[in-house]
Write a structure and sequence with these properties.
Length: 287
């Protein structure tokens, strides 16, 4: 049964970007991030209650709490940039860049934490790097677009950078805290950060102008993220991590497939080859 949960995790993670894209056609991406984080926060605390780790809150040290907050800020920045990139660019280009945060994390861990890079990781880094490059190659029509219309690339790259910083901050200073509890605390920080951005940019009034259909998709994207987390946790609880983790990483295939069905985003031959390299590289790093 655990393998069903593993594929469920990949499925829900894969459709998160699709649902979010549907919810930010007219809605400000920062407002959408703030709203969906409420849903994600509820799910993260549900997981905490499931494993009963809330009883260990008092055991968290000051240093660990500081790094939880810092990693939460990095997560918030990553989410804000990711949904801004999704609003401006094609899903089949934004998602591969976001997934490349795995490569940045390995490189930063090597530089800052002196973590070695195995042959499998080295092959994976090269595969994901080349694959991402192939997937974001511009079409002839895109090359003629004004630079302002290509700003999604900057936001997508920032999303990957902040996502990798989240992992590094966790490696450096988060100790002695159960993973689900740590995720819940970080998500709380993300929620505060997201709403601060909304208030600072004076977008709070926009909440009354969000089309009900888009609001529904925003909430569904939060539910999809929560569903992915719950399935992932259940799969890891009952099955081997060496199989569960690679299956979960295949969520990019779900995203690309749905982007074709829903938004008619087609992959060029180069992009298709890039997708194969990204998936192969990911699996090579996890073997």
């Amino acid at each position: 049964m655990w393998i069903v949960y593993a594929f469920g995790s990949a499925f829900f993670a894969g459709i998160t970007a699709i649902l979010a894209k549907c919810g930010i056609k007219k809605t400000d991406s920062n407002m959408a991030t703030a709203i969906r984080t409420i849903v994600v926060l509820a799910f993260s605390w549900l997981m905490v209650l499931m494993v009963e780790s809330h009883t260990t809150i008092g055991d968290i040290s000051g240093k660990t709490l500081l790094f939880l907050i810092l990693s939460g800020l990095a997560t918030g920045a990553s989410w804000l940039c990711y949904f801004k990139a999704l609003q401006m660019g094609d899903i089949n280009k934004v998602v591969p860049i976001d997934k490349s945060s795995t490569v940045l994390t390995i490189i930063l861990a090597f530089i800052l934490l002196n973590e070695g890079i195995s042959i499998g990781k080295g092959v994976g880094v090269v595969g994901i790097g080349i694959g991402t490059y192939l997937m974001i190659q511009k079409k002839a029509t895109e090359a003629a677009q004004p630079k302002a219309n290509q700003a999604w690339l900057i936001y997508a790259l920032l999303s990957a950078v902040f996502a990798s910083l989240t992992a590094i901050l966790g490696k450096i200073g988060i100790e002695g805290v159960e993973s689900n509890l740590g995720t819940a605390i970080r998500t709380g920080v993300v929620l505060v950060m997201a709403w601060l951005v909304v208030f600072v940019t004076r977008k709070k009034g926009i909440s009354r102008e969000i089309p009900l259909k888009e609001l529904g998709f925003i909430i569904l994207s939060g539910l999809a993220t929560g569903g992915s987390w719950l399935c992932y946790y259940k799969a890891l609880q009952d099955g081997p991590a060496s199989v569960v983790v690679p299956i979960d990483k295949l969520s990019i295939l779900v995203t690309i497939a749905f982007s074709y069905v829903v938004f008619h985003e087609k992959l060029a031959k180069k992009a298709a080859l890039g997708l194969v390299l990204i998936v192969s590289g990911t699996l090579a790093m996890l073997i």
